[in-house]
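User: You have something folded?
Assistant:
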Amino acid sequence: MAALNDITAATGRVTAREARIRRMYSLRRVQWWQPVVVFLALVGVWYLVANYYDKVQGLPFLVPYPHLVLKAAFADPLFSPQLVQDLGNSTQVALTGLVVAIVIGVVWAILMSQAKWIERSLYPYAVILQCIPILALVPLIGALFGYEFLSRVIVTVMISIFPMVSNTLFGLQSVDRAQRELFTLQGAGRWTTLTKLQLPAALPSIFVGLRTAAGLSVIGAIVGDQFFQRGTPGLGVLIQVSTSRLNGAGTYAAILTASLLGVAVFLLFGLLGRLAVGRWYDFG
């Protein structure tokens, strides 16, 4: 920024690029403190509510103080190691289910993009899969596939696959008609059109679907974990156990950890999206 000021002082002019850079730095300086203020306000409200349940209601485990939640997460010799271990287990389930959902969702969308009759035949089942109440299927999934890792992954895939299908299909079908006609005039086949035109043009929509599916995959891992309590436990089991023991600080620590896991996966795919298509598309 100092070099930019020196150049401007030497030339006496501000170019359009320099003006954009100045606006960018100005917005960053203005915006960084806003989430911090909201965070501090939320923590303040949390302390007030916790004080009410502690002093007035006499039920401190329902809403524990934030510093007790942090202590449980980082300084409790019994709870903290279990939290880290369960976080790793839930992360493994969420990422495995997300990878499977990505592969199936992209292939599903590609098939539907090839012909309208294929889309009319397959897309209703994607909608049905999205609308099925997953909790109603959990007992059936457990009876068919057991109550361990595989069933957790299946639940994760079912919850997170629809954004991949719908966003990928939207991106593949949003290719400019003139570009598609140009490929047709050049005699390009379906495979060439798909790999050279449709998939590159669909990347922004695919990454939007990835970010949405990434957050849903964590929800799927927690939901599956709470219902399939055999095998290797994760954060869902830890939340239930902490709640049954009236360990409010542990319950909130596990819930916040699950939320931060979802945010981390969401931000990871947001970063990948900016790296992949950030030059040509404003990928927020």
